[in-house]
Specification:
The complex is a heterodimer of chains A (308) and B (452). Chain A is of the alpha/beta class and 308 residues long. Chain A is built from 10 helices and 8 strands. In chain A, strands 2-1-3-4 form a 4-stranded parallel sheet, sandwiched between helices. The radius of gyration of chain A is 23 Å and the shape is globular. The N and C termini of chain A lie far apart (90 Å). Chain B has a domain of 243 residues: Porin, CATH 2.40.160. Chain B has a 16-stranded antiparallel barrel with strand order 1-2-3-4-5-6-7-8-9-10-11-13-14-15-16-17. In chain B, a hairpin with a 2-residue loop joins strand 15 and strand 16. The longest helix of chain B has 32 residues. The chains are: A alpha/beta (308), B alpha+beta (452). At the A-B interface, helix 3, helix 4, helix 7, strand 6 and helix 8 of A face helix 2, helix 3, strand 6 and strand 8 of B.
């Protein structure tokens, strides 16, 4: 009998020990990108642990699903995603495979960070595949504008409040702090980017529309003839002539695109190719979102200065 | 509009400056100047913000960048343009130079999409056309062109707990439901554990990795011999006019019933256990035999590194054959995938090998057929893939066997279409034949990406 009681006490203690960390455990958040991870960490503080699925140097269209993604999504309390079909080629089957109904579309733990963003480049009229891999709900690279980061942060705050109502006051406080920081960042970067105003660029893909819009420069053409369609000789010939005519001296490309075609165009136009990663953590000194924005704009300003 | 904003800003500036002047007449002149400077800077920012908002509104209303045509191109001489185009064409064809990192194309025949379609299901059509030559030499005899299949897919969530996926294959032989499944995505609402996924309907049998992919999306024009011989259907006579064995070009192991799939997360790796009793009718198992075919699969997926995964599966099937006697199948499948992080658009590799063993009770003894295939697909560039396959299979009754070697080159002009040229050397029932196929496969509409 005594042995039985001892066993019972040991079993109850073991049970309590397993329950104790559960009660105190952090909110598990899976973000699809490093920028969303950063924003979630700012809002969630010590109450959250966040992982990002995508590598910052990875093209969002070629993410190879990995078993660790399934495991992380299976255990997640919250999924923060860019939305607007940005992760559409790989995320939905993973979410389904994760068996976690909380993070499915419309679930309590699903955060579409794009809600409320004033979107650019929403196609009008009839949308067909003739237009390439067009983002039918609008350009999804909206995080490259500090004003939009405030909206992203609000969406994340809402999501965290849903899954962790006890932390609502912390999240609200952190949100207000982040909003102030974004206002400061905007002021700083507007000054920093002053030399870019009115400048013309060519880019590989439609990644930079929100950045251009906020800081007053123009992307006059793209190496891809249509989004997601490989460059053709005919398109590049047109683009080169236009660059010569409009005196475009800088080509922006992301690290996950090849160098050959930008270099071919640069050779014929005298332009400089600037490689910029649009996601935090892809380059040295871009570990946080404010550092990323400073880094991108500094690189562009330097490129413009050098070209002149 | 911009001019108007500048006027407003100027007016604000003047008003503000006047207000300042009247209220702070006594302030020193330099302090006042400083304040004015700050005010001007603030207003400049305001104007800039308003300009940005204005351009955002404008851009929201216009077509994407791709539709904008170069304005002053006509001022350039056409000869200059042509010369430039020819030069670029030559250079593009030369291939990748040594300095830049190599890259390539879509992950596989996957489909972007993500079209939000209100309450309508995601609807797509994948059209598969092929033209082939067959004979003792390549191009010896024209087999004809055929519209081999149009796969119609309708996929949508039925409610917050489940999803319906329907794939209908329309071919010259008629229309067939290839797959129609109701998947319970949230089994907790009926008190089942969260990691359990329940599927009902006509399913792709959980047997091997390749069998989870519909034929138009597989990496070769035809299925491996073991799939064709064991899981295909022969229409009409089993021999052609020249006495050769006629075997179907495709073989997909499907069945109707229920599937229970349990996810076991293990660290950064994942394991799935599946059990499925299905009603199956193919060359190996016979429908209406009085009992279902029981299938079991254990699949373990390991993450070797952020760029490499390895998948191993053990498969078992037990049911009755056309003689109403027992047949057992055992299968092993291995899949290795590599896709670099940075160059993932331009390079990838998939190696897949599957081996099956059968035990077919005939009443007079047990026949033990076997079959296997190994294939590799390497991505050469953004749009070009090269594939090779070697396969061997004995027919389920072991009356003949076949082996083959195939090479395929596939061009993806976009994520939604592909052209494929394939050459195969097959030795079936002792006769050697060459096959040359040209396949074009295109999809329209929204097709959900494939499961993991």
């Amino acid at each position: 009998m005594r042995r039985f009681l001892l066993l019972l006490v040991a079993a109850i203690s073991a049970l309590l020990l397993t329950l104790a960390p559960t009660a105190a455990r952090k909110i598990r958040v899976v973000a699809t990108t490093n920028d969303l991870k950063w924003a979630t960490e700012q809002i969630g503080g010590d109450r959250v642990e966040v992982v990002a699925l995508m590598h910052p140097l990875q093209n969002p269209h070629t993410v190879q699903p990995r078993p660790s993604f399934v495991v992380q999504l299976n255990r997640a309390d919250l999924l923060v995603r860019i939305g607007l079909d940005y992760e559409e080629t790989w995320l939905p089957p993973l979410v389904e495979e994760s068996r976690n109904s909380k993070i499915r579309r419309g679930g309590v733990g699903d955060v579409d960070a794009s809600i409320g963003i004033p979107l650019l480049e929403i196609p009008t009229g009839r949308v067909t595949r003739e237009q390439g891999e067009v983002h039918i709900m609008g350009n999804p690279h909206y995080w490259l504008d500090p004003e939009n980061m405030k909206i992203i942060a609000r969406n994340i705050t809402e999501g965290l409040r849903r899954v962790d109502p006890a932390g609502a006051s912390v999240y609200e406080r952190n949100l207000r702090k982040l909003e102030r920081e974004m206002d400061e960042l905007l002021n700083e970067t507007l000054d920093l980017a002053a030399p870019l105003r009115g400048e013309k660029f060519v880019a590989y893909h439609t990644t930079w529309s929100y950045l251009a819009n906020r800081y007053g420069f123009r992307i006059i053409g793209y190496l891809e003839p249509k989004p997601g369609i490989p460059p053709s000789a005919s398109h590049l010939a047109d683009l080169i002539l236009r660059m010569r005519q409009e005196k475009v001296k800088v080509i922006i490309k992301e690290p996950f695109y090849e160098n050959r075609i930008p270099n071919m165009v640069a050779q014929r136009t005298g332009a400089k190719v600037v490689e910029i990663c649009p996601t935090a953590g892809g380059e040295k000194g871009t570990e946080t979102y404010p550092k990323l924005m400073h880094h991108i704009l500094t690189k562009l300003v330097n490129a413009v200065r050098e070209a002149k | 509009m911009v001019r108007w904003l500048k006027v407003v800003a100027f007016a604000l500036l003047v008003t503000s400056a006047w207000g300042q002047e009247s209220s702070e007449v006594s302030d020193p002149r330099d302090k006042e100047l400083q304040q004015l400077r700050e005010r001007v800077a603030a207003l400049e920012r305001l104007v800039q913000l308003l300009q940005s908002e204005l351009s955002a509104l404008k851009r929201n209303g216009i077509a994407p960048q791709s539709q904008t045509q170069p304005v002053a191109l006509q001022q350039q001489t056409e000869t200059e343009r042509q010369k430039l185009e020819e030069e670029l064409q030559r250079e593009l064809q030369q291939g990748v130079t040594s300095s830049p990192p190599p890259r390539s194309s879509p992950p596989a025949f996957v489909y972007g999409g993500g079209l939000w379609q209100a309450l309508n299901p995601d609807t797509s059509v994948i059209a598969n056309f092929r033209t082939g030559f067959r004979g003792k030499r390549p191009f010896a005899s024209f087999m004809g062109s055929e519209f081999s299949e149009a796969e119609l897919a309708f996929q949508a969530a039925t409610d917050p707990f489940s999803r319906l996926d329907t794939f209908i294959a329309v071919s010259p032989e008629g229309a067939e439901i290839e797959e129609a499944t109701l998947t319970i995505l949230d089994p907790t609402f009926i008190g089942l554990p969260r990691n359990l996924q329940v599927r009902f309907g006509k399913l792709l049998a959980p047997f091997g990795q390749l069998n989870s992919i519909h034929p138009p999306e597989q990496p070769f024009v035809d299925s491996p011999l073991v799939h064709r011989l064991w899981f295909g259907h022969v229409h009409g006579n089993a021999h052609n006019s020249e006495g050769e064995e006629t075997i179907p070009a495709e073989g997909l192991f499907t069945g109707t019933g229920i599937s229970l799939n349990w996810l076991v997360p293990t660290g950064k790796h994942a394991t799935w256990l599946t059990i499925a009793p299905l009603n199956v009718d193919n060359a190996t198992f016979h429908a209406n035999s009085g009992r279902p075919v029981w299938l079991a699969r254990v699949r373990h997926m390991r993450e070797l590194s952020p760029t490499q995964t390895f998948n191993i599966g053990l498969n078992y099937a037990f049911g009755r054959n056309d003689l109403h006697r027992d047949t057992r199948l055992l299968g092993v499948d291995l899949t290795y995938r590599w896709r670099p992080i940075r160059e993932g658009l331009y390079r990838s590799l998939v190696w897949q090998t599957e081996a099956y063993w059968g035990w077919r009770d005939t009443g007079n003894g047990t026949i033990k057929p076997k079959g296997w295939f190994t294939m590799v697909e390497y991505q050469l560039s953004r749009t070009l893939f090269l594939g090779a396959r070697y396969d061997f299979a004995q027919s389920p009754d072991k009356s003949f066997s076949g082996r083959g070697f195939s090479l395929a080159i596939t061009l993806f002009p976009s994520e939604f279409g592909r052209y494929r040229l394939q050459w195969s050397r097959l030795k079936i029932g002792g006769q050697t034949v060459h096959e040359v196929w040209l396949q074009t496969t295109f999809s329209i509409g929204i097709h959900r990406p494939h499961p993991l």
